[in-house]
Specification:
The chain has 154 residues and is an alpha/beta fold. The chain has 5 helices and 4 strands; from the N terminus they run E-H-E-H-E-H-E-H-H.
Length: 154
């Protein structure tokens, strides 16, 4: 990458141990690419789109901080006994997709939607599927695509 990107990581802390592993994968990929990042914690996956919206909209009111080049959404939703899982998964994914197209955001989606903790760990572990690292790489790839189309206000 030409300029080192600056990335916002939003991590849902509902399942803290899984969140820590997702963050470990994401930060490892970002560090390997020479990117800088800031981490922000939210209670659960449902709150991730709001946190990203706050960051994007803050540029309308306060331009004194460095703009984020990309965003990474990390979290885990494990199916329970009610339909709550369906709403959290569907609505958070929908809103993140809406944000990425509405604001032309480079977004890496790393919210695990699984049936149980074993599936979550298989996907989160950095020595297995490393979905945190995959989300970071997707974000970095989308930043490069945005640069190709000159969509950065630098």
């Amino acid at each position: 990458m030409t300029d080192a990107p600056h990335v916002m990581i939003v991590e849902a802390r509902f399942y803290e141990d899984i969140a820590d592993e997702l963050v470990k994968g994401a930060t490892g990929a970002l560090e390997a690419a020479g990117a800088s990042f800031e981490r922000f914690a939210v209670p659960g996956a449902f709150e991730i789109p709001a946190a990203i919206t706050y960051a994007v909209r803050s540029m309308d009111f306060y331009a004194g901080r460095r703009r984020f080049d990309g965003y990474i959404a990390l979290g885990c939703v494990i199916r329970g006994e009610t339909t709550h899982y369906d709403y959290v998964c569907g609505e958070s994914a929908r809103k993140l997709a809406d944000l990425s197209t509405q604001y032309a955001l480079a977004l890496g989606y790393g919210i695990l939607t699984v049936e149980n903790a074993e599936q979550a760990w298989a996907r989160a572990a950095t020595d297995r599927k490393n979905k945190g690292g995959d989300a970071a790489q997707a974000c970095l790839d989308m930043i490069e695509l945005k640069r190709h189309f000159h969509l950065f206000p630098r």
